[in-house]
Structures are given as structure tokens and as C-alpha cells.
Specification:
- The protein is α/β, with parallel strands linked by helices and 387 residues long.
- Helix content is 36%, strand content 13%.
- The strands form five sheets. Strands 3, 4, 5 and 12 form a four-stranded antiparallel beta sheet that branches. Strands 8-9-7-10 form a four-stranded mixed beta sheet.
- The longest helix has 19 residues.
Length: 387
């Protein structure tokens, strides 16, 4: 909840100060934790050029891809917190299955900082092999990605992937409201939050002009308040109403502030709010009646990956039934959720829990043009509305 994935508007929340030193080292090219003499430079035993391969077939099949990745021996990832969407288990699963070491750098970096790290470390063994990015940053940097289509390509909806595989949506959350059930009644509809029960209690996770979770929260508020992804104005208006009622609390929420009771009601991704209950048993998560807001993150391979075969194997892993189910285990919604449901690869109860009973047909998410319009509106109105 305090990580900063996907800056600016498709980010996680704002960067934790504790991560600033680590991030600065990565961006400056001096982080030694990921250093290694590994990396094949692209050539493989099969004669394939891993750096230009667009599918496992280019290697001669999955077995040959696995062999090429194991020859490299390592994978460099960045901005993947272990407690975010189950990345701890996803990374461990990849290492256990393929015997490849994963070097995880600067887990609390933002998407923009992922790209900056790739630029600063280009040509070095420590450069990121893969990215996990918010949409705004991904769309601005497609020239830095390598096209690749995984074996499960046909199961991924067309709207969730670039046609050549430059970027592919991997997981999302459902925008939700977490609340301390020992202090607050369960809200049944949006207007309940304007009542006296919620005085000084309601928090949006970050600044929507900078943080993706906050951006999504305003988008969801808009949809619940008579607007839509075409018009974030009603969401800004509702935040203003919360402020006037004395119910909007201008404090950046973290697991610690939730556990201590400082932030009793938090708008955030469902997987963050559900996870908060581990340290706060009275913490409940609800998705209010109406449109369900989702915003997928994006998987991409760096065209300058020092371990290009491992990068492509990681992509295969991320979109496999096993890894997609691991997202689901953490209440993140995997992009192949419908395929998992149809094949029986994931438990129906887990899908119901992660999606809060919503259906993909009812999900809303702004496209590129709608995001740009929302950004402009937020830049103009947000600060003066909530200050």
C-alpha cells in the first residue's frame, strides 16, 4: 500500500522514503546486489538470437527456451515488492521451477524509475530484463520493449495486449474501500461516506495526479457519482464533498497507519486492502454497488535485456496457469481469469473472492485518451478542491 508502482497516473502509491537510497543506487548504476557475469549476449545453443525472438518457436520450442534461459542463469527484475500481488511467491516459483536466480532490484521504484534505470544501466549486466508498468508509462515507452507472444497468447483478450506483444496486461485489482469494522459501520452506498460516522476517517491512497491507486479511486468515485471514465469531474466533486463534511483525511495510508487506526477507511486496490487484514483483523474490504473499476498493469521485455532468453521465459511464466493463479491467490485479478475459470485451472471461490463477485463484462477502465483527459482535469481541479 505504500509502494510506488507505475508513476505517474498508473502508479502504485507514492515512493516510500525508505526506498529512496536503494532506488538512487539503481538509477545511478552502482547497485552491486544484482551484479553477475551471466548473460548470453543473445546467442543460444539452438542458434536462435534470444534478443530478437518473438515466441518460443523461435528457439525451437519451450524446452529450448528453458535451456537458453538456464544457460544465462539469471533474471533481473525491478519494482516488484514481495507483498504486492504475490510477487514474493511468483519470483520464488520461477526460481524453483527453472533453477534461475532472480535479482530483484529496488522493489519500491515507480514505473518511470524502471524506465530510467534501464536507460542508465543500458549495456550493463545489472540492467532490468523485464518491466512491470502502469499503462501511462508503458504507452510512452514502447520503443524500449521487445515484441513477444507467449504460448497462452490466444487466451489473453485482444484489448489487453499490444498486437505484437510489446506490452501485455498481466494483473489488476478491483478498486475498493477498506474500513475498520470496529470503528465504522459498513457503507452500503457512496453517499454513506458523507455521514457523521465517517468524520475524519476517509483516505484516498495518494495524490491522483501522481499515484495510480489514487487516480483509479477518483475514477471509481466518478462512476459511482454519476460520471464515468469519460468524466472524472464527479469524482473530484465527491472528494470535495468529503472535505466539506470533514470526512476526508489527508494522510497517506500505509499498513502501519491502518494497523494503528490512523486511517480507518481507505480507497485502494482490493489486493492491498485484503492484505491489510493480516495485521488488522477488524479490517474489511468492500466494493460498493455500481461499476467496478479495474486498471491492469503491463508486462514488457526490455529490448536491451542482458538476459534475453530468461526475460522471455519469465514472460511465459507470468502468463502460465500457475503464475496467474498465484496473482489470484493474493486477490489480484489475473488477465487470463476467464480462461482459468473455463479450464478449471483456478478455484471458483478464489475467483469470486478476488473479483468481489464482479464480472469482466462490468469492469470499467479508461483508455489512453480518457486517461489524458482525466489527467488534465485532475491537474486543474484536484489540489484546489481538496485543499
Amino acid at each position: 500500500m505504500s509502494t510506488s508502482k507505475g508513476f505517474p497516473v498508473s502508479s502504485r502509491t507514492l515512493l516510500r522514503s525508505a526506498a529512496l537510497i536503494t532506488t538512487a543506487l539503481v538509477l545511478g548504476g552502482t547497485l552491486a546486489a544484482c551484479a553477475s557475469d551471466g548473460g548470453s549476449g543473445g546467442g543460444t545453443d539452438s542458434g536462435a538470437d534470444a534478443s530478437t525472438a518473438t515466441s518460443a518457436e523461435d528457439f525451437g520450442g519451450m524446452d529450448a527456451l528453458v535451456k537458453a534461459a538456464q544457460d544465462e542463469g539469471q533474471l533481473n527484475v525491478i519494482a516488484l515488492p514481495e507483498d504486492w500481488a504475490n510477487y514474493g511467491k511468483i519470483i520464488a516459483g520461477f526460481e524453483d521451477k527453472y533453477g534461475i536466480t532472480v535479482n530483484s532490484a529496488s522493489p519500491d521504484a515507480s514505473s518511470a524509475e524502471e524506465i530510467q534505470a534501464a536507460e542508465n544501466l543500458k549495456g550493463q549486466d545489472t540492467a532490468p530484463d523485464v518491466f512491470d508498468l502502469g499503462t501511462a508509462v508503458a504507452l510512452e515507452n514502447t520503443d524500449k520493449f521487445a515484441p513477444y507472444q507467449v504460448e497462452t497468447w490466444d487466451d489473453i483478450p485482444e484489448a489487453n495486449k499490444e498486437k505484437t506483444g510489446l506490452w501485455v496486461n498481466n494483473y489488476s485489482g478491483i478498486m475498493s474501500l477498506g474500513y475498520d469494522s470496529d470503528k465504522l459501520p459498513e457503507p452500503k452506498e457512496l453517499k454513506d461516506l458523507l455521514g457523521s460516522d465517517y468524520k475524519g476517517s476517509v483516505v484516498i491512497n495518494g495524490d491522483p495526479t501522481q499515484a495510480g491507486a489514487a487516480f483509479a479511486a477518483v475514477g471509481w468515485l466518478s462512476a459511482l457519482n454519476g460520471g464515468s471514465v469519460d468524466d472524472f469531474g464527479p469524482g473530484v466533486d465527491f472528494a470535495g464533498d468529503l472535505r466539506k463534511a470533514g470526512n476526508l483525511l489527508t494522510l497517506d495510508p500505509t499498513p502501519a497507519t491502518i494497523a494503528s487506526g490512523e486511517t480507518p477507511a481507505v480507497f485502494d486496490w482490493s489486493f492491498n486492502n485484503v492484505a491489510a487484514a493480516a495485521d488488522k483483523p477488524s479490517w474489511k474490504t468492500t466494493v460498493l454497488p455500481g461499476p467496478a473499476y479495474v486498471s491492469f498493469y503491463n508486462e514488457a521485455i526490455s529490448k536491451d535485456a542482458p538476459n534475453p532468453a530468461a526475460a522471455r521465459l519469465w514472460q511465459e511464466w507470468i502468463f502460465s496457469d500457475e503464475a496467474q493463479a498465484l496473482y489470484l491467490e493474493a486477490n489480484a485479478v489475473p488477465v487470463r481469469v476467464d480462461a482459468l475459470k473455463e479450464s478449471g485451472a483456478a478455484d471458483e471461490a478464489a475467483i469470486e473472492q478476488a473479483t468481489f463477485g464482479t464480472d469482466s463484462a462490468d469492469w470499467i477502465s479508461p483508455d489512453e485518451q480518457q486517461t489524458e483527459a482525466a489527467n488534465a482535469l485532475l491537474a486543474e481541479r484536484w489540489a484546489k478542491t481538496v485543499s
